Amino acid sequence: MLRASLKSLLARKMRLALTGIAVVLGVAFVAGTYVLTDTMNAAFDEGFASASAGIDVVVRGESDFQEVIGSASGGGDDRRPIPEAVLEDVSVLPGVASAGGEASGFAQFIDPKTGDPLGGFGPPTLGSSWDPREIVLRLVEGSPPAGPAEVVIDEASAQDVGARVGSKVEVVLEDGPSTSTVSGLVDASDLLGVRVALFDLPTAQKLFDKEGQLDSITVVAEPGTDSGDLRAQIDAALPDGYEAILGTTQAQEGAESLKEGLGFIRTALLVFAFVALFVGAFIIFNTFSIIVAQRSRELGLLRALGASRRQVLGATLTEAAIVGLFASIVGVLAGIGLAIGLKGLLTAFGLELPGTGTQIEVRTLVVSLVLGVVVTALSAVLPARRSATVAPIEALREGTQAVPRASLRRRLIIGAIVSIAGVASLLYGLFAAASSQLQFVGLGVFVTFLGVAVLAPLFARPLSSFIGAPLARLGITGYLGRENAKRNPRRTASTASALMIGLALVAFVSVLGASLKASTTAALEDTLKADLIVLNPTFQPLSTKAATQIEAVPEVDAVTRVRQEVFQLEKNTAFVTAVDPATVEQTTSVGMIEGSVDSLNDGMVLVFSGTAEDHGWTVGDVVPMRFALTGLQEIQIGGLYDEDRLLDDFVISLETYDANYLEGLDSFLLVKGSTSVPPKTLAGAVEGAVADLPGVEVQDQATFRETQAGFIDQLLNLISALLSLAILIALFGIANTLSLSIFERTRELGLLRAVGMTRRQLRSMVRWEAVIIAILGAVLGLTLGILFGWALQQALVSEGITELAIPTGQLIGYVIFAGLAGVVTALLPARRAAKLKVLDAIAYE
């Protein structure tokens, strides 16, 4: 039977290729995701290891987070500064060959051509002190910085700003821009594309407001001294609040923090990969269903020659496994190429990975191959069981065996049960669940989708008739195309279901995105009283000088500084917003329902009413807020508010913020002008006040709303692009089904040609059938997508997505796209059908 299976596959190479395409694309996405993320992780490990090379021990302030939150979270590196005297104490300890201090802070290069911050959304700029013992940042030209007027920068930044040794460069610091002379250039290629601006230690301490303080101390051990023993000795000599760790530990922590922060990339890409494989499963199921029907005589002959049902079942599953294995191998190779391409894309966006090779783990090969084979085999189980039921008498009959009506009845029962269970979970999550609301909604959406997929053949005949009604009026080709789509609802539904999945997800994303934009716009219109918003368009913080200079503008009534950071609440990360209590109610609607904004002046915290209800808090209770710098602070609740769309869930004053965080940079500013000042006059005055501060942008409310909508559109476009792979696989499925149906209907097509149908009419008939199938999948998909989008929007009302918006024009465009795609996918099958020779087709079998 194995030999028979192999011969069957090799005899139908085109069918093998068409069946394998769906698996190839899905597996390529899985393999490419693993290869890319493994390569990135290896690069992070190598980069941080290089950065810590030659450093045996690092002294730093302790973090009071119970579980240290990494730099990706925002506040985890806000450690206690180290008094400079500690450096002297460490330097004289036995076993210490050398010890050096480091002071670092916010810095950003300015492009002299545009006046904008350099790098956009790429890697950040590291402002730090120069370490004479530096071995990672190799000085390739010039000399180390000496004095307050000199800086060493990396070669990439020098090229971008057109600087060389002796040139002037502008660097934005916390207190505003500073101009320095480039004394030297370093190679920073091992730092993952990070830009560097290095000053001598006294200058760095002054520029970063850390005079007499250090962020860390790095220690090199004397030859023959054990690093572990030296670490323990230094740790014992440190005052309370400081710790000594191995240099390798710091490198590992940095790499793990970055990996964790970017871990969502792997998760997101794998989700899209599994969606692609899920769509491919429908294609494989449909393909093997058609193949089994076409081979009923062949299978009957095997049964007549003595093959048992078990052998026929095994032969069909063997064919599926071989197809899956072959396609998975090709998919893995394609995935490696995809990962290399994505790595180049990351480099183009500024994330320059060190010179590490492409990482191909054994896990990647095993998971990809097993996944491809298992998905293919499982998709072929039902068709294989059907093949085992073929009776020996089928070898003596022409045509295919009709599908029993009982199978559709079973579909109706099973599909109804699954759909009801999905809807029940959906409704429970929306209206009854006190917790895990999103989980129940997500489960309900998934199960409902499966139920509709099972029930799809019941919808296929009437919907095909309705969709094809206009085509039937175009002539005999449109009529026959509609009848062909109606004739086998199981095949039509299975083919359309693959496209339904892809378009349902795209429509879901579109509805959710439109709702998010509408909700963001509504939130800004409802809560924002400010006339102008001042921000850094690259999401970097603002110099504190911006607010000071705007406050001096006569046309301005109020300026609210807004700062955002993280703290730890019961071992979970939470965000806190800091504002000026004196001006916040002039620039935004807080929506106080109990207590007063003035309580912020007394060091209290305001809490969103929904969050307070979840924790059982009332005014006067305390919130256990744990900060990395100052540890656990039990801050009393001074008021509750009901408007968290701009302020998040916790609000403190700027004074409370400064007492618990080191970096005092503003996230953005809200500006309220005098009522008698025209908007253009106000905007001009504010822009003039910050004209000397590069990277500061002044936006009115309308522009700010458009900017926020633009960011949402960029994210949605990325998601839609990734989902397009599933749609591409579905379109291959339509072409595959039509191609196989051409073989199945060879005799029928020959008879049509014999009674006078032209080649052109035959091609047109096949194309109209494809259009009907594609539009059927689009209609089902868009209906489900709108339903799922509504469900998730309702579940996220408490998270700020309060408005439901359905992008009608965009969804209609998807239907038109589906129809046009149906024409394209039918081109080759239609051409093959038209090339059939009439006499050969009539003489078939």
Give a verbal description of the structure:
This protein is 56% helix and 16% strand. The chain is α+β, with helices and mostly antiparallel strands and 845 residues long. Strands 15, 16, 17, 18, 19, 20, 21, 22, 23 and 24 form a 10-stranded mixed beta sheet that branches. Strands 4, 5, 6, 7, 8, 9, 10 and 11 form an 8-stranded mixed beta sheet that branches. Helix 10 (309-348) packs antiparallel against helix 12 (381-388), helix 13 (405-431) crosses helix 14 (437-472) and helix 22 runs parallel beside helix 26. It is globular. Mean pLDDT is 82; it is low at 68-76 and 399-406.
Distance between the termini: 24 Å
Considering DSSP H and I runs of 4 or more, what fraction of the residues is helical?
Answer: 55-70%
How would you characterize the largest beta sheet?
10 strands, mixed
Q: Please report the total strand number as a whole number.
A: 24
Number of helices: 27
Q: Strand percentage, roughly?
A: 15-25%
Q: Indicate the mean pLDDT.
A: 82
| Backbone structural class | alpha+beta
Computed CA radius of gyration, to the nearest angstrom: 33 Å
Low-confidence stretches: 68-76, 399-406
Tell the overall outline: globular
